[in-house]
Structure formats: C-alpha cells, structure tokens
Amino acid sequence: MEQKWYQIILNNWSQIVVVLGSIGFVIRTLTIYWLKRREITFSRIQENKILEIKVFYKSYQSLEIALMTYLNQISFGEHSNEIFRKNREDIYSKFIDFSYNSMTVKLFLDTEDIITIDEITKTFECIRIDLETWLIYSKSTNPPDGWDKLEEIRKERFPKKLPELIKKIETSLRQSFELK
C-alpha cells in the first residue's frame, strides 16, 4: 500500500524535525564563524590603516621640515656649498621615505584620497625643484624668467596649498572611521 506524502510526514515528524534542526544548526554555526572571521579581518585592516596613516603623517612632517629648513637656509642663512649639500641629502632621504610611505598608505585609501596624496607628492617635488632652480640661478648673470619662486613657496604652497590637501585627507579619514 502506497502512502501519501503528508502521511509520511505525519508518521515520521520527529525524525524530520531532528534532521531539519541539525541542518539549521550547521548553517547557523558556519554563518557565525564566517561573520566573526570577517569582523576580525576588518578590524585588523582598520588597525593597519591607522598605523600606516600615522607613519605617513610622520614622513610628511619630516619632509616638510626639511624643505622649510632648506628654504630658510636659502633665504636667511649662510650660503655654503657644504650646508646646501647636507640639506639636499636630508631632503632626498626624507623624500624617499615619504614616497615609500605614500605608496603604502595608498593601499588603504579610496581613489579620491590617492589623487590627493599624489598631489601632495607633486607639490613637494615642485617645491624641491624650485629651490634647486633658485640655487642654480641665484648667482647667474642671465637667469631665465620665473626662476625665483621663493615668495610663492613661502606664501602659497607651505601655508595654504599643503594644509588644504592634508585637510582633505583628514576629512576623508574621519568619514571612513565614522568620526565627526
């Protein structure tokens, strides 16, 4: 005699409940494991992001100080080849450190922040080139037009442009960490 499907369910309801409960328990356990693993990974990424940002800011400040020291030496200090050589070596090593830290921190940032970091790097490079250009042409009898950009560096790039770019990154970072 053939049984109908609902009679099979009614006759074996306890075994069906055990099987469905076991399947539900396995699915629940796997889901909790997956969510916990993802949560741990996200928190580690956030921790690494904070550490990289911290190192980035430190290298930014070191390079800014080195360039300001060089600018002040050119404007107000003694004009010795030895002093300028030491300043250029210091700037070179700080620029390499800044470039490395910029590349590393870009791994954790979105596209807009990466563009801002590239703009900061470009601004620093332009400041360095303009300072070197001043040093080359300061003693020249026939310098090219627009070679002296010390006032622009002192009045525009350091006090306005670089802080504006850093402020953009800070605002974006606050939003990414959900801070106000």
Describe the secondary structure blueprint for this structure.
Layout: H1 5-11, H2 13-76, H3 81-105, H4 111-137, H5 150-176
Helix pairs in contact: 2-3, 2-4, 3-4, 4-5
Which band does the percent of strand residues land in? under 5%
Main sheet: strands, sense, barrel:
none
Structural class by SSE content:
mainly alpha
List the secondary-structure elements in sequence, H or E.
Answer: HHHHH
Distance between the termini: 73 Å
Instruction: Estimate nothing, just give the exact number of structural domains.
Output: 1
Rg estimate, integer Å: 31 Å
Anisotropy-based shape: rod-shaped
Q: State the helix count.
A: 5
Whole-number mean pLDDT? 89
Query: What's the β-strand tally?
Result: 0
Q: In the CATH hierarchy, what is the class?
A: Mainly Alpha
CATH architecture: Up-down Bundle
Would you give the CATH topology? de novo design (two linked rop proteins)
In terms of per-residue confidence, which ranges show pLDDT below 50 for 5 or more consecutive residues? none
The percent of residues in helical segments reads over 70%
Can you put this structure into words, describing what you see?
There is one protein chain. This protein is mainly α and 180 residues long. The protein has one domain: de novo design (two linked rop proteins) (Up-down Bundle). The chain has helices at 5-11, 13-76, 81-105, 111-137, 150-176. Helix 3 (81-105) runs antiparallel to helix 4 (111-137). The model has no long low-confidence stretch (mean pLDDT 89).
